[in-house]
Amino acid sequence: MSEIDFEGLRGRLVAEPEKVLAASVMEDAILCLDKYYGSQDERQKALYTEALKWVRSDDNTWAFSFVCVCEALKLDVDCIRKGILKREEEKGKPKKPS
Questions:
Q1: Buried-state track 22-41, b at ≥16 Cβ within 10 A, e below 16
Q2: Contacting residues for 8 by C-beta, under 8 A, at least 6 apart
Q3: Are 26 and 69 in contact (CB under 8 A)?
Q4: pLDDT, tens digit (0-9, with 9 covering 90-100), for 27-56
Q5: Rounded to whole angstroms, what are the CA distances from 12 to 23, 70, 75, 94?
Q6: What SS3 state is found at 21?
Q7: Which of 11, 28, 62, 91 is deepest in the core (most CB within 10 A)?
């Protein structure tokens, strides 16, 4: 999955504060997945697990659910979810020698 340009996205959404907030929620989840992967700290593990659960959820009843955030940002829910989950799966695989 190519990286989402959150700075550029926020710049385009400056007149739409609810979308800026939605982008920040998405960014925070991705940062938690990256920063806390493999952590042994209980709080960090909980943040990682919560972010992963959020990405996997199909809930669309809460304004800041993964599905609603993707829709607010006009992102394809399935494509973004697959990309994030693929990155998570690849983190556990040994790196191939260069």
A1: bbebbeebbebbeebbeeee
A2: none
A3: yes
A4: 999 999 999 999 999 999 999 999 999 999
A5: 11, 16, 14, 38
A6: helix
A7: 28
